[in-house]
Amino acid sequence: MKTLFIQKSEMPTVDFPLQPWQDRVIQERNDLQMRWQKLTDYKRDDRFADLNVHNRRLLLKQWMIMSAYLEVLNERITRFKSELVTK
Fold first, then answer.
1. What string of H, E and C letters represents the secondary structure of the chain?
2. What is the pTM of this model?
C-alpha cells in the first residue's frame, strides 16, 4: 500500500450548489481530515514512540487506511462538478 500525504491545499473545493448527499460527503471528508491530522500529529509526538510495537503498528495501519479513505472522498468531491456538467 502506498503512503499518502493529504495536504489541506489538495482538498477539493466546491463553488456550486450541492445536493444534500454531496454536503454529507464533504462533511464526512472534513471530519475525517480533522481526525487524520490529529493522528498524523500524534505519530510525530514522542508519546507515539513510547507505545508498544503492536499498538504503533495498529495506529500506522489505521493512519494508512484513513489516508486512502481521504483520497477516495476527495476524488468523489472532485467529480461532483464533472457529474453536474454531464447531466
1. CCCCCCCHHHCCCCCCCCCHHHHHHHHHHHHHHHHHHHHHHHHCCHHHHCCCHHHHHHHHHHHHHHHHHHHHHHHHHHHHHHHHHHC
2. 0.78
What's the structural domain count of the chain? 1
Residue 4 located in a structural domain: no
Domain that holds residue 82: 21-86
Per-residue pLDDT tens over the stretch 12-56:
777 778 899 999 999 999 999 999 999 999 999 999 999 999 999
Distance from C-alpha of 58 to C-alpha of 65, rounded to nearest angstrom: 11
Examine residue 43 and state whether it is found in any structural domain, yes or no: yes
Q: Tell me if 13 is assigned to some domain.
A: no
